[in-house]
Amino acid sequence: MTAATITRARPRTGRPKRNITAHIFLVALVLYFLMPLWWLFVASTKDAQGLFSGAGGALWFDKNFNLVQNIQELFTYKGGLYLRWLGNSALYAVVGGVGATVLAVLAGYGFAKFRFKGRDFSFAILLGSVMVPLTALVIPTFMLMSQMHLTNTIWAVILPSLLSPFGVYLMRVYAADAVPDELLDAARVDGSGEFRTFFRVAVPLMRPAIVTVLLLSVVGTWNNYFLPLAVLSDQNLYPITVGLGGWQALAASNNGGGASLYTLIVVGSLISIIPLIIAFLSLQKYWQGGLSLGALK
Amino acid sequence: MTNPATTLSSPGAAATTPQAASTSKKPQSRRRSVSRGWIGWLFIAPFGIVFVVFLVSPLAYAFYLSLFSKGLATGTIFSGVGNYVKAFTDPEFLSGVWFVLRFAVVLIPVQMAVSLAAALVLDSLTTRLANFSRLMIFVPYAIPAVIGSIMWGFLYSPSFGPLNNLFSLINQQAPEILNSDNIFGGLMNVVVWQWAGYYMIIIYAALRGIDPSIYEAARIDGANPRQIALRVKVPMITSALVLILVFALIGTLQFFTEPQVLKPIANGAITASFTPNIYAYNLAFQFSQFNYASTISFSLGIVVFIAVYIFLFSTRKRRGGFSS
User: Fold this and answer.
1) Which CATH architecture has domain B82-318?
2) Which residue of A172, A276, A294 is in closest CB contact with B142?
3) Per 3-state DSSP, what percentage of chain A is helix, strand, and coil (rounded to 5)?
4) Average of pLDDT values for B97-126?
5) Do A58 and B133 touch (CB under 8 A)?
Protein backbone atom coordinates (compact mmCIF):
# COMPACT_ATOMS: atom_id res chain seq x y z
CA MET A 1 0.00 0.00 0.00
CA THR A 2 2.88 2.37 0.62
CA ALA A 3 4.35 1.82 -2.83
CA ALA A 4 1.24 3.21 -4.45
CA THR A 5 1.27 6.35 -2.36
CA ILE A 6 4.95 6.92 -3.02
CA THR A 7 4.53 6.85 -6.76
CA ARG A 8 1.59 9.19 -6.49
CA ALA A 9 3.52 11.58 -4.30
CA ARG A 10 4.43 14.82 -5.99
CA PRO A 11 8.17 15.10 -6.71
CA ARG A 12 9.53 17.91 -4.59
CA THR A 13 12.33 19.94 -6.03
CA GLY A 14 15.60 19.84 -4.08
CA ARG A 15 16.32 18.44 -0.62
CA PRO A 16 15.89 14.71 -1.15
CA LYS A 17 18.12 14.08 1.88
CA ARG A 18 16.56 12.37 4.84
CA ASN A 19 15.78 14.54 7.73
CA ILE A 20 16.76 12.63 10.86
CA THR A 21 15.01 14.88 13.37
CA ALA A 22 11.80 14.77 11.38
CA HIS A 23 11.89 10.99 11.32
CA ILE A 24 12.54 10.72 15.05
CA PHE A 25 9.57 13.01 15.62
CA LEU A 26 7.41 10.77 13.41
CA VAL A 27 8.51 7.60 15.17
CA ALA A 28 7.67 9.15 18.53
CA LEU A 29 4.22 10.13 17.25
CA VAL A 30 3.57 6.66 15.84
CA LEU A 31 4.60 5.05 19.13
CA TYR A 32 2.23 7.32 21.03
CA PHE A 33 -0.71 6.69 18.70
CA LEU A 34 -0.18 2.94 18.49
CA MET A 35 0.70 2.28 22.14
CA PRO A 36 -2.92 1.86 23.35
CA LEU A 37 -3.61 -0.52 20.46
CA TRP A 38 -0.55 -2.58 21.27
CA TRP A 39 -1.68 -2.67 24.89
CA LEU A 40 -5.16 -3.77 23.77
CA PHE A 41 -3.74 -6.63 21.74
CA VAL A 42 -1.42 -7.77 24.52
CA ALA A 43 -4.16 -7.50 27.15
CA SER A 44 -6.53 -9.53 24.98
CA THR A 45 -4.17 -12.49 25.23
CA LYS A 46 -4.22 -12.56 29.04
CA ASP A 47 -6.53 -14.37 31.41
CA ALA A 48 -8.42 -12.52 34.12
CA GLN A 49 -5.61 -12.81 36.61
CA GLY A 50 -2.85 -11.98 34.14
CA LEU A 51 -4.66 -8.81 33.09
CA PHE A 52 -4.09 -7.32 36.53
CA SER A 53 -0.89 -8.98 37.69
CA GLY A 54 0.78 -10.32 34.57
CA ALA A 55 4.42 -11.32 34.71
CA GLY A 56 5.50 -9.14 31.78
CA GLY A 57 3.88 -5.88 32.89
CA ALA A 58 1.07 -4.03 31.17
CA LEU A 59 2.73 -3.77 27.76
CA TRP A 60 4.05 -7.31 27.37
CA PHE A 61 2.55 -10.81 27.17
CA ASP A 62 1.83 -12.94 30.20
CA LYS A 63 3.21 -16.48 30.44
CA ASN A 64 0.11 -18.13 29.00
CA PHE A 65 -1.45 -17.01 25.70
CA ASN A 66 -5.19 -16.93 26.26
CA LEU A 67 -6.50 -15.07 23.20
CA VAL A 68 -8.48 -17.92 21.65
CA GLN A 69 -10.14 -18.89 24.94
CA ASN A 70 -11.02 -15.24 25.56
CA ILE A 71 -12.64 -14.93 22.15
CA GLN A 72 -14.58 -18.16 22.71
CA GLU A 73 -15.78 -16.93 26.07
CA LEU A 74 -16.73 -13.57 24.56
CA PHE A 75 -18.76 -15.12 21.74
CA THR A 76 -20.68 -17.46 24.05
CA TYR A 77 -21.20 -15.14 27.03
CA LYS A 78 -24.94 -14.65 27.72
CA GLY A 79 -25.92 -16.55 24.59
CA GLY A 80 -23.69 -14.61 22.21
CA LEU A 81 -24.85 -11.15 23.29
CA TYR A 82 -21.61 -9.62 22.02
CA LEU A 83 -22.11 -10.92 18.48
CA ARG A 84 -25.60 -9.48 18.56
CA TRP A 85 -24.19 -6.07 19.47
CA LEU A 86 -21.65 -6.34 16.69
CA GLY A 87 -24.45 -7.17 14.25
CA ASN A 88 -26.54 -4.27 15.53
CA SER A 89 -23.62 -1.86 15.10
CA ALA A 90 -23.12 -3.10 11.55
CA LEU A 91 -26.82 -2.75 10.77
CA TYR A 92 -27.06 0.79 12.20
CA ALA A 93 -23.82 1.92 10.57
CA VAL A 94 -24.60 0.46 7.14
CA VAL A 95 -28.26 1.48 6.92
CA GLY A 96 -27.72 4.84 8.64
CA GLY A 97 -24.48 5.56 6.79
CA VAL A 98 -25.68 4.54 3.33
CA GLY A 99 -28.98 6.35 3.87
CA ALA A 100 -27.27 9.54 5.02
CA THR A 101 -24.93 9.38 2.03
CA VAL A 102 -27.74 8.90 -0.50
CA LEU A 103 -29.63 11.87 0.94
CA ALA A 104 -26.45 13.98 0.98
CA VAL A 105 -25.54 13.14 -2.62
CA LEU A 106 -29.03 13.95 -3.90
CA ALA A 107 -29.30 17.18 -1.94
CA GLY A 108 -25.72 18.30 -2.67
CA TYR A 109 -26.29 17.76 -6.40
CA GLY A 110 -29.62 19.59 -6.18
CA PHE A 111 -28.01 22.58 -4.49
CA ALA A 112 -25.04 22.65 -6.86
CA LYS A 113 -26.69 22.12 -10.21
CA PHE A 114 -30.17 23.64 -10.15
CA ARG A 115 -31.24 27.23 -9.80
CA PHE A 116 -34.56 27.60 -8.07
CA LYS A 117 -36.39 29.92 -5.80
CA GLY A 118 -35.31 29.64 -2.19
CA ARG A 119 -32.10 27.79 -2.98
CA ASP A 120 -29.67 30.27 -1.47
CA PHE A 121 -31.87 30.74 1.57
CA SER A 122 -32.17 26.97 2.21
CA PHE A 123 -28.44 26.55 1.77
CA ALA A 124 -27.77 29.33 4.25
CA ILE A 125 -29.98 27.51 6.77
CA LEU A 126 -28.08 24.30 6.06
CA LEU A 127 -24.73 26.00 6.66
CA GLY A 128 -26.03 27.44 9.91
CA SER A 129 -27.22 23.99 10.99
CA VAL A 130 -23.70 22.60 10.65
CA MET A 131 -23.05 24.65 13.80
CA VAL A 132 -25.90 23.03 15.76
CA PRO A 133 -24.39 20.67 18.32
CA LEU A 134 -26.05 17.40 17.32
CA THR A 135 -25.77 15.91 20.80
CA ALA A 136 -27.93 18.73 22.13
CA LEU A 137 -30.66 17.20 19.96
CA VAL A 138 -30.41 13.77 21.58
CA ILE A 139 -32.71 14.35 24.52
CA PRO A 140 -35.37 16.24 22.51
CA THR A 141 -35.15 13.50 19.85
CA PHE A 142 -35.65 10.89 22.54
CA MET A 143 -38.77 12.68 23.73
CA LEU A 144 -40.17 13.08 20.22
CA MET A 145 -39.47 9.40 19.57
CA SER A 146 -41.21 8.33 22.74
CA GLN A 147 -44.28 10.36 21.67
CA MET A 148 -44.24 8.33 18.45
CA HIS A 149 -43.60 5.07 20.37
CA LEU A 150 -40.36 4.59 18.45
CA THR A 151 -37.94 4.48 21.36
CA ASN A 152 -36.35 1.12 21.96
CA THR A 153 -36.58 0.16 18.28
CA ILE A 154 -33.84 0.09 15.67
CA TRP A 155 -35.49 3.10 13.96
CA ALA A 156 -34.75 5.27 16.95
CA VAL A 157 -31.05 4.90 16.11
CA ILE A 158 -31.21 4.65 12.32
CA LEU A 159 -33.59 7.50 11.45
CA PRO A 160 -31.73 10.31 13.30
CA SER A 161 -28.47 8.98 11.80
CA LEU A 162 -29.75 9.92 8.34
CA LEU A 163 -29.16 13.56 9.19
CA SER A 164 -25.82 14.80 7.84
CA PRO A 165 -25.82 18.52 7.02
CA PHE A 166 -22.04 18.49 6.67
CA GLY A 167 -22.29 15.67 4.13
CA VAL A 168 -24.64 17.80 2.03
CA TYR A 169 -22.23 20.72 2.29
CA LEU A 170 -19.31 18.53 1.14
CA MET A 171 -21.30 17.08 -1.75
CA ARG A 172 -22.42 20.50 -2.92
CA VAL A 173 -18.89 21.88 -2.85
CA TYR A 174 -17.59 18.87 -4.73
CA ALA A 175 -20.42 18.60 -7.28
CA ALA A 176 -20.15 22.29 -8.15
CA ASP A 177 -16.62 21.75 -9.52
CA ALA A 178 -16.55 18.10 -10.53
CA VAL A 179 -19.74 18.01 -12.58
CA PRO A 180 -19.54 20.49 -15.49
CA ASP A 181 -22.82 22.15 -16.48
CA GLU A 182 -21.93 21.67 -20.16
CA LEU A 183 -21.89 17.90 -19.70
CA LEU A 184 -25.31 17.93 -18.03
CA ASP A 185 -26.71 20.16 -20.77
CA ALA A 186 -25.28 17.85 -23.42
CA ALA A 187 -26.96 14.86 -21.78
CA ARG A 188 -30.25 16.77 -21.61
CA VAL A 189 -30.02 17.75 -25.28
CA ASP A 190 -29.45 14.07 -26.07
CA GLY A 191 -32.77 13.35 -24.44
CA SER A 192 -31.61 12.02 -21.10
CA GLY A 193 -34.07 12.70 -18.27
CA GLU A 194 -32.93 14.52 -15.14
CA PHE A 195 -32.65 11.42 -12.98
CA ARG A 196 -30.98 9.40 -15.70
CA THR A 197 -28.48 12.24 -16.19
CA PHE A 198 -27.87 12.26 -12.46
CA PHE A 199 -27.15 8.53 -12.24
CA ARG A 200 -25.24 8.15 -15.52
CA VAL A 201 -23.27 11.40 -15.66
CA ALA A 202 -23.09 13.06 -12.24
CA VAL A 203 -22.74 10.12 -9.84
CA PRO A 204 -19.62 8.64 -11.50
CA LEU A 205 -17.96 12.06 -11.43
CA MET A 206 -18.81 12.52 -7.74
CA ARG A 207 -17.43 9.14 -6.68
CA PRO A 208 -14.44 10.30 -4.54
CA ALA A 209 -16.68 12.62 -2.54
CA ILE A 210 -19.35 9.92 -2.22
CA VAL A 211 -16.86 7.46 -0.74
CA THR A 212 -15.65 10.12 1.69
CA VAL A 213 -19.13 11.07 2.87
CA LEU A 214 -20.02 7.37 3.13
CA LEU A 215 -16.99 6.66 5.30
CA LEU A 216 -17.64 9.69 7.49
CA SER A 217 -21.28 8.76 8.05
CA VAL A 218 -20.60 5.06 8.60
CA VAL A 219 -17.90 5.93 11.14
CA GLY A 220 -20.14 8.53 12.76
CA THR A 221 -22.94 6.01 13.26
CA TRP A 222 -20.67 3.13 14.23
CA ASN A 223 -18.94 5.29 16.87
CA ASN A 224 -22.11 6.95 18.12
CA TYR A 225 -22.76 6.49 21.82
CA PHE A 226 -25.00 9.21 23.22
CA LEU A 227 -27.99 8.67 20.90
CA PRO A 228 -28.31 4.87 21.27
CA LEU A 229 -27.60 5.18 24.99
CA ALA A 230 -30.55 7.53 25.32
CA VAL A 231 -33.10 5.88 23.02
CA LEU A 232 -32.45 2.17 23.69
CA SER A 233 -33.11 0.24 26.88
CA ASP A 234 -33.33 -3.32 25.54
CA GLN A 235 -29.78 -4.66 25.61
CA ASN A 236 -30.52 -6.92 22.64
CA LEU A 237 -30.72 -3.76 20.52
CA TYR A 238 -27.51 -2.13 21.82
CA PRO A 239 -24.71 -1.30 19.44
CA ILE A 240 -21.22 -2.30 20.49
CA THR A 241 -20.40 1.10 22.02
CA VAL A 242 -23.34 1.11 24.43
CA GLY A 243 -22.85 -2.59 25.21
CA LEU A 244 -19.18 -2.31 26.09
CA GLY A 245 -19.77 0.97 27.96
CA GLY A 246 -22.40 -0.85 30.02
CA TRP A 247 -20.04 -3.73 30.80
CA GLN A 248 -17.39 -1.23 31.82
CA ALA A 249 -19.77 0.42 34.30
CA LEU A 250 -20.92 -2.98 35.56
CA ALA A 251 -17.39 -4.28 36.03
CA ALA A 252 -16.36 -1.12 37.88
CA SER A 253 -19.36 -1.25 40.22
CA ASN A 254 -18.63 -4.73 41.62
CA ASN A 255 -14.91 -4.62 42.14
CA GLY A 256 -13.97 -8.23 42.72
CA GLY A 257 -16.71 -9.91 40.66
CA GLY A 258 -15.95 -7.66 37.69
CA ALA A 259 -12.54 -9.23 37.07
CA SER A 260 -13.72 -11.79 34.51
CA LEU A 261 -15.90 -9.19 32.81
CA TYR A 262 -12.78 -7.09 32.24
CA THR A 263 -11.21 -9.73 30.02
CA LEU A 264 -14.40 -9.73 27.95
CA ILE A 265 -14.34 -5.94 27.71
CA VAL A 266 -10.73 -5.98 26.54
CA VAL A 267 -11.06 -8.72 23.94
CA GLY A 268 -14.45 -7.31 22.89
CA SER A 269 -12.85 -3.92 22.28
CA LEU A 270 -10.14 -5.52 20.18
CA ILE A 271 -12.54 -7.44 17.95
CA SER A 272 -14.84 -4.46 17.47
CA ILE A 273 -12.19 -2.08 16.17
CA ILE A 274 -10.86 -4.44 13.50
CA PRO A 275 -13.58 -3.93 10.82
CA LEU A 276 -13.25 -0.16 10.64
CA ILE A 277 -9.45 -0.19 10.70
CA ILE A 278 -9.48 -2.59 7.75
CA ALA A 279 -12.04 -0.43 5.95
CA PHE A 280 -9.90 2.66 6.36
CA LEU A 281 -6.65 1.03 5.34
CA SER A 282 -8.16 -0.58 2.24
CA LEU A 283 -10.06 2.52 1.11
CA GLN A 284 -7.28 5.02 1.83
CA LYS A 285 -6.86 6.20 -1.74
CA TYR A 286 -10.43 7.46 -1.70
CA TRP A 287 -10.70 9.24 1.61
CA GLN A 288 -7.23 10.76 1.81
CA GLY A 289 -8.05 13.23 -0.94
CA GLY A 290 -11.71 13.48 -0.07
CA LEU A 291 -11.28 14.63 3.53
CA SER A 292 -9.84 17.94 2.38
CA LEU A 293 -12.92 18.79 0.33
CA GLY A 294 -14.54 21.09 2.81
CA ALA A 295 -11.25 22.63 3.81
CA LEU A 296 -10.02 23.63 0.37
CA LYS A 297 -12.90 25.95 -0.31
CA MET B 1 -38.33 12.90 -28.14
CA THR B 2 -35.26 15.03 -28.51
CA ASN B 3 -36.21 17.64 -25.98
CA PRO B 4 -38.08 16.40 -22.95
CA ALA B 5 -38.74 19.95 -21.80
CA THR B 6 -40.67 20.67 -24.99
CA THR B 7 -42.94 17.70 -24.74
CA LEU B 8 -43.34 18.29 -21.05
CA SER B 9 -44.46 21.90 -21.40
CA SER B 10 -46.68 21.45 -24.44
CA PRO B 11 -47.92 17.91 -24.74
CA GLY B 12 -50.25 18.67 -27.65
CA ALA B 13 -49.12 20.27 -30.89
CA ALA B 14 -45.63 21.71 -30.54
CA ALA B 15 -43.61 18.53 -30.38
CA THR B 16 -44.61 17.30 -33.83
CA THR B 17 -43.62 20.33 -35.89
CA PRO B 18 -40.06 21.59 -35.58
CA GLN B 19 -41.17 24.97 -36.89
CA ALA B 20 -43.54 25.53 -34.03
CA ALA B 21 -40.83 24.64 -31.56
CA SER B 22 -38.42 27.23 -32.95
CA THR B 23 -40.91 30.08 -33.20
CA SER B 24 -42.03 29.80 -29.58
CA LYS B 25 -38.50 29.61 -28.25
CA LYS B 26 -38.66 32.30 -25.61
CA PRO B 27 -41.58 31.16 -23.48
CA GLN B 28 -40.36 27.59 -23.71
CA SER B 29 -36.92 28.25 -22.27
CA ARG B 30 -38.55 30.14 -19.45
CA ARG B 31 -40.89 27.27 -18.71
CA ARG B 32 -38.02 24.86 -18.98
CA SER B 33 -36.07 26.56 -16.20
CA VAL B 34 -39.16 26.59 -14.03
CA SER B 35 -39.65 22.87 -14.47
CA ARG B 36 -35.98 22.25 -13.71
CA GLY B 37 -36.35 24.27 -10.53
CA TRP B 38 -38.99 21.82 -9.45
CA ILE B 39 -36.56 19.00 -10.06
CA GLY B 40 -33.97 20.78 -7.90
CA TRP B 41 -36.42 20.64 -5.02
CA LEU B 42 -37.07 16.97 -5.74
CA PHE B 43 -33.37 16.23 -5.27
CA ILE B 44 -33.31 18.12 -1.99
CA ALA B 45 -36.66 16.91 -0.66
CA PRO B 46 -35.55 13.58 0.92
CA PHE B 47 -32.83 15.30 2.90
CA GLY B 48 -35.18 18.19 3.59
CA ILE B 49 -37.70 15.88 5.23
CA VAL B 50 -35.05 14.34 7.48
CA PHE B 51 -33.76 17.82 8.26
CA VAL B 52 -37.18 19.02 9.34
CA VAL B 53 -38.08 15.89 11.29
CA PHE B 54 -34.79 15.27 13.09
CA LEU B 55 -33.25 18.71 13.38
CA VAL B 56 -35.91 21.39 13.22
CA SER B 57 -38.60 19.57 15.18
CA PRO B 58 -36.40 18.37 18.06
CA LEU B 59 -35.11 21.93 18.38
CA ALA B 60 -38.63 23.35 18.31
CA TYR B 61 -39.90 20.68 20.69
CA ALA B 62 -37.02 21.25 23.09
CA PHE B 63 -37.75 24.96 23.04
CA TYR B 64 -41.45 24.31 23.62
CA LEU B 65 -40.76 21.98 26.55
CA SER B 66 -38.28 24.40 28.03
CA LEU B 67 -41.05 26.95 28.46
CA PHE B 68 -42.91 24.71 30.88
CA SER B 69 -42.06 23.24 34.24
CA LYS B 70 -43.46 20.30 36.04
CA GLY B 71 -43.91 20.10 39.78
CA LEU B 72 -45.42 17.40 41.94
CA ALA B 73 -48.02 19.71 43.44
CA THR B 74 -48.55 22.11 40.58
CA GLY B 75 -48.53 19.78 37.57
CA THR B 76 -47.22 21.17 34.29
CA ILE B 77 -47.37 24.95 34.18
CA PHE B 78 -46.17 27.55 31.70
CA SER B 79 -43.11 29.21 33.13
CA GLY B 80 -41.85 31.32 30.20
CA VAL B 81 -38.16 32.04 30.46
CA GLY B 82 -38.18 30.79 34.05
CA ASN B 83 -36.21 27.65 33.17
CA TYR B 84 -33.58 29.71 31.35
CA VAL B 85 -33.19 32.04 34.32
CA LYS B 86 -32.81 28.93 36.45
CA ALA B 87 -30.28 27.36 34.04
CA PHE B 88 -28.03 30.39 33.70
CA THR B 89 -27.97 30.81 37.49
CA ASP B 90 -27.67 27.07 38.17
CA PRO B 91 -24.14 26.51 39.57
CA GLU B 92 -24.14 22.93 38.24
CA PHE B 93 -24.87 23.97 34.67
CA LEU B 94 -22.49 26.93 34.88
CA SER B 95 -19.67 24.79 36.26
CA GLY B 96 -20.20 22.36 33.37
CA VAL B 97 -20.08 25.21 30.85
CA TRP B 98 -17.01 26.61 32.58
CA PHE B 99 -15.34 23.21 32.39
CA VAL B 100 -15.96 22.68 28.66
CA LEU B 101 -14.90 26.25 27.86
CA ARG B 102 -11.65 25.84 29.81
CA PHE B 103 -11.19 22.42 28.23
CA ALA B 104 -11.65 23.86 24.73
CA VAL B 105 -9.23 26.71 25.39
CA VAL B 106 -6.46 24.37 26.54
CA LEU B 107 -7.21 21.33 24.38
CA ILE B 108 -7.70 22.90 20.96
CA PRO B 109 -4.32 24.70 20.72
CA VAL B 110 -2.50 21.55 21.90
CA GLN B 111 -4.40 19.36 19.47
CA MET B 112 -3.82 21.85 16.67
CA ALA B 113 -0.10 22.07 17.42
CA VAL B 114 0.26 18.28 17.29
CA SER B 115 -1.69 17.83 14.08
CA LEU B 116 -0.16 20.85 12.33
CA ALA B 117 3.38 19.80 13.27
CA ALA B 118 2.73 16.25 12.10
CA ALA B 119 1.19 17.45 8.83
CA LEU B 120 4.05 19.86 8.10
CA VAL B 121 6.65 17.18 8.75
CA LEU B 122 4.77 14.64 6.63
CA ASP B 123 4.40 17.16 3.82
CA SER B 124 8.15 17.68 3.67
CA LEU B 125 8.97 13.95 3.44
CA THR B 126 8.22 11.34 0.82
CA THR B 127 9.76 8.32 2.52
CA ARG B 128 8.06 5.02 3.20
CA LEU B 129 8.22 5.73 6.92
CA ALA B 130 6.37 9.00 6.39
CA ASN B 131 3.57 7.29 4.46
CA PHE B 132 3.30 4.59 7.09
CA SER B 133 3.27 7.16 9.91
CA ARG B 134 0.51 9.14 8.25
CA LEU B 135 -1.78 6.13 8.29
CA MET B 136 -0.86 5.06 11.81
CA ILE B 137 -1.42 8.52 13.29
CA PHE B 138 -4.85 8.50 11.66
CA VAL B 139 -5.90 5.06 12.95
CA PRO B 140 -7.39 6.25 16.30
CA TYR B 141 -10.05 8.17 14.35
CA ALA B 142 -11.52 4.81 13.29
CA ILE B 143 -11.84 3.71 16.92
CA PRO B 144 -15.03 4.60 18.83
CA ALA B 145 -14.56 7.14 21.61
CA VAL B 146 -16.07 4.60 24.01
CA ILE B 147 -13.29 2.12 23.28
CA GLY B 148 -10.60 4.81 23.29
CA SER B 149 -11.80 5.82 26.76
CA ILE B 150 -11.91 2.21 28.00
CA MET B 151 -8.33 1.64 26.79
CA TRP B 152 -6.96 4.80 28.35
CA GLY B 153 -8.90 4.01 31.53
CA PHE B 154 -6.88 0.80 31.85
CA LEU B 155 -3.64 2.51 30.86
CA TYR B 156 -4.16 5.19 33.52
CA SER B 157 -4.44 2.64 36.30
CA PRO B 158 -1.71 3.29 38.89
CA SER B 159 -1.75 -0.35 40.01
CA PHE B 160 -1.77 -2.39 36.79
CA GLY B 161 -1.15 0.11 33.97
CA PRO B 162 2.21 0.84 32.35
CA LEU B 163 2.63 3.84 34.65
CA ASN B 164 3.06 1.35 37.46
CA ASN B 165 5.85 -0.41 35.53
CA LEU B 166 7.48 2.92 34.78
CA PHE B 167 7.36 4.34 38.29
CA SER B 168 8.38 1.12 39.99
CA LEU B 169 11.70 1.42 38.15
CA ILE B 170 12.48 4.45 40.27
CA ASN B 171 10.69 3.04 43.34
CA GLN B 172 7.92 5.58 43.19
CA GLN B 173 4.18 5.29 43.52
CA ALA B 174 2.50 5.87 40.15
CA PRO B 175 0.24 8.94 40.12
CA GLU B 176 -3.54 8.61 40.07
CA ILE B 177 -4.67 10.22 36.83
CA LEU B 178 -8.39 9.69 37.28
CA ASN B 179 -8.75 11.92 40.34
CA SER B 180 -10.03 15.47 40.50
CA ASP B 181 -6.53 16.97 40.20
CA ASN B 182 -5.44 15.16 37.07
CA ILE B 183 -8.68 14.33 35.29
CA PHE B 184 -8.38 17.43 33.09
CA GLY B 185 -5.09 16.27 31.59
CA GLY B 186 -6.25 12.65 31.48
CA LEU B 187 -9.32 13.52 29.40
CA MET B 188 -7.29 15.85 27.23
CA ASN B 189 -4.89 13.07 26.35
CA VAL B 190 -7.76 10.78 25.31
CA VAL B 191 -9.24 13.44 23.03
CA VAL B 192 -5.91 14.44 21.45
CA TRP B 193 -5.13 10.79 20.81
CA GLN B 194 -8.52 10.26 19.22
CA TRP B 195 -8.72 13.32 16.97
CA ALA B 196 -5.24 14.66 16.18
CA GLY B 197 -4.80 12.18 13.32
CA TYR B 198 -8.05 13.19 11.67
CA TYR B 199 -7.15 16.87 11.79
CA MET B 200 -3.64 16.03 10.62
CA ILE B 201 -5.05 14.34 7.49
CA ILE B 202 -7.22 17.35 6.65
CA ILE B 203 -4.29 19.75 7.10
CA TYR B 204 -2.01 17.43 5.13
CA ALA B 205 -4.48 17.24 2.24
CA ALA B 206 -4.74 21.03 2.21
CA LEU B 207 -0.93 21.31 2.15
CA ARG B 208 -0.74 18.94 -0.82
CA GLY B 209 -3.11 21.24 -2.66
CA ILE B 210 -0.61 24.14 -2.65
CA ASP B 211 1.28 24.76 -5.88
CA PRO B 212 4.91 23.76 -5.10
CA SER B 213 6.33 26.44 -7.39
CA ILE B 214 5.51 28.90 -4.60
CA TYR B 215 8.07 27.12 -2.36
CA GLU B 216 10.62 27.43 -5.13
CA ALA B 217 10.02 31.16 -5.34
CA ALA B 218 10.37 31.45 -1.56
CA ARG B 219 13.61 29.45 -1.65
CA ILE B 220 15.07 31.72 -4.33
CA ASP B 221 14.19 34.66 -2.10
CA GLY B 222 16.34 33.02 0.58
CA ALA B 223 13.71 31.46 2.84
CA ASN B 224 14.81 28.40 4.84
CA PRO B 225 12.55 25.34 5.24
CA ARG B 226 11.24 26.50 8.61
CA GLN B 227 10.34 29.92 7.22
CA ILE B 228 8.65 28.30 4.24
CA ALA B 229 6.59 26.15 6.59
CA LEU B 230 5.50 28.94 8.91
CA ARG B 231 5.39 31.95 6.57
CA VAL B 232 4.24 30.32 3.33
CA LYS B 233 2.47 27.01 4.02
CA VAL B 234 0.52 27.90 7.16
CA PRO B 235 -0.94 31.17 5.80
CA MET B 236 -2.03 29.35 2.64
CA ILE B 237 -4.14 26.80 4.51
CA THR B 238 -5.83 29.26 6.88
CA SER B 239 -9.34 28.35 5.73
CA ALA B 240 -8.67 24.66 6.42
CA LEU B 241 -7.36 25.57 9.89
CA VAL B 242 -10.38 27.74 10.68
CA LEU B 243 -12.73 24.95 9.60
CA ILE B 244 -10.94 22.46 11.85
CA LEU B 245 -10.94 24.89 14.77
CA VAL B 246 -14.67 25.44 14.42
CA PHE B 247 -15.36 21.70 14.39
CA ALA B 248 -13.03 21.12 17.31
CA LEU B 249 -14.78 23.89 19.25
CA ILE B 250 -18.27 22.54 18.54
CA GLY B 251 -17.16 19.00 19.38
CA THR B 252 -15.46 19.97 22.63
CA LEU B 253 -18.38 21.96 23.99
CA GLN B 254 -20.57 18.86 23.49
CA PHE B 255 -18.15 16.73 25.50
CA PHE B 256 -20.00 13.62 26.70
CA THR B 257 -18.72 10.18 25.76
CA GLU B 258 -15.23 10.16 27.28
CA PRO B 259 -16.19 11.46 30.75
CA GLN B 260 -19.35 9.34 30.76
CA VAL B 261 -17.36 6.15 30.09
CA LEU B 262 -14.57 7.01 32.54
CA LYS B 263 -17.00 8.07 35.26
CA PRO B 264 -17.40 4.64 36.92
CA ILE B 265 -13.66 4.28 37.43
CA ALA B 266 -12.88 7.92 38.21
CA ASN B 267 -13.54 7.77 41.97
CA GLY B 268 -16.01 10.63 41.95
CA ALA B 269 -13.81 13.01 39.96
CA ILE B 270 -16.47 13.08 37.24
CA THR B 271 -19.69 14.41 38.73
CA ALA B 272 -23.27 14.16 37.47
CA SER B 273 -22.98 17.69 36.08
CA PHE B 274 -19.39 17.44 34.85
CA THR B 275 -20.29 18.75 31.36
CA PRO B 276 -23.58 20.29 30.17
CA ASN B 277 -24.43 17.18 28.12
CA ILE B 278 -23.81 14.83 31.05
CA TYR B 279 -25.94 17.09 33.22
CA ALA B 280 -28.79 17.07 30.68
CA TYR B 281 -28.54 13.28 30.36
CA ASN B 282 -28.72 12.78 34.11
CA LEU B 283 -31.56 15.27 34.54
CA ALA B 284 -33.57 13.40 31.91
CA PHE B 285 -32.77 9.78 32.72
CA GLN B 286 -31.92 9.82 36.43
CA PHE B 287 -34.33 12.47 37.66
CA SER B 288 -36.99 12.49 34.90
CA GLN B 289 -36.82 16.29 34.74
CA PHE B 290 -37.46 16.43 31.03
CA ASN B 291 -38.46 20.07 30.89
CA TYR B 292 -35.34 21.24 32.62
CA ALA B 293 -33.17 18.77 30.65
CA SER B 294 -34.56 20.30 27.44
CA THR B 295 -33.69 23.73 28.77
CA ILE B 296 -30.12 22.61 29.44
CA SER B 297 -29.83 21.10 25.94
CA PHE B 298 -31.17 24.23 24.33
CA SER B 299 -28.93 26.41 26.49
CA LEU B 300 -25.91 24.36 25.42
CA GLY B 301 -26.90 25.04 21.80
CA ILE B 302 -27.00 28.77 22.61
CA VAL B 303 -23.56 28.60 24.28
CA VAL B 304 -22.13 26.80 21.23
CA PHE B 305 -23.62 29.36 18.84
CA ILE B 306 -22.19 32.25 20.83
CA ALA B 307 -18.77 30.61 21.12
CA VAL B 308 -18.58 29.81 17.38
CA TYR B 309 -19.80 33.28 16.48
CA ILE B 310 -17.19 34.94 18.68
CA PHE B 311 -14.52 32.69 17.21
CA LEU B 312 -15.48 33.31 13.58
CA PHE B 313 -15.83 37.02 14.23
CA SER B 314 -12.41 37.26 15.85
CA THR B 315 -10.71 35.40 12.98
CA ARG B 316 -12.67 37.10 10.22
CA LYS B 317 -9.87 39.36 9.05
CA ARG B 318 -7.36 36.59 8.68
CA ARG B 319 -9.20 33.99 6.69
CA GLY B 320 -10.91 33.30 3.42
CA GLY B 321 -14.61 32.46 3.38
CA PHE B 322 -15.92 29.31 5.02
CA SER B 323 -18.98 29.07 2.83
CA SER B 324 -18.65 28.26 -0.82
Assistant:
1) Orthogonal Bundle (1.10)
2) A276
3) 75, 0, 25
4) 93
5) no
